[in-house]
Specification:
With 130 residues, this protein is mainly alpha-helical. 43% of the residues lie in helices and 8% in strands. The radius of gyration is 35 Å and the shape is elongated.
Amino acid sequence: MAVLHKKEEKIQAVLGRLPKKYTDEQFVEMFIRLYSKDWGKIKSAYIKQSQDKEPGTVINMPKPEIYLKQVLANYLQQADSPKIEEVEVVEKTPVAEPKKAKTTTKKKVDGEEQVVEPKKAKTTTKSGGY
C-alpha cells in the first residue's frame, strides 16, 4: 500500500515553489508546508510500523524525512533517465495454418445433394498367436 498518493504531482508542485538550486532539507520543509496532511500520514505510517514490530526486527520504512528524500531521488532519477524509444516492429511472413480434417462433404448425386461421411483411417491389428 502506498503511503503517499499522487507522488509525482505533489513533487512537481513542491519543486515549482523552490529555487533552482535547493537542498533536500528545503524540499522536505516545503513539502511539509504544502502537504501537512500527507506529512502526517507518512509519520503515522512510520510510527505504526515501528510499534507493530517485535523488538529486534527491522523496520522496512525509513524515517519520514529520509522517505521524502528517497521519493524525490526516485522522481529525479526517472525524470533524468531517457524514455524508452519505440521499437520498430518487423513484419513476419505469415505461417500457414495446418489443414483441418473434414468432417463431412457434400456430393451431388442425380441432381440432389447428399452428405457423405469421410472415410475412417484403417487400423491394423496384429493377431497374437501367443
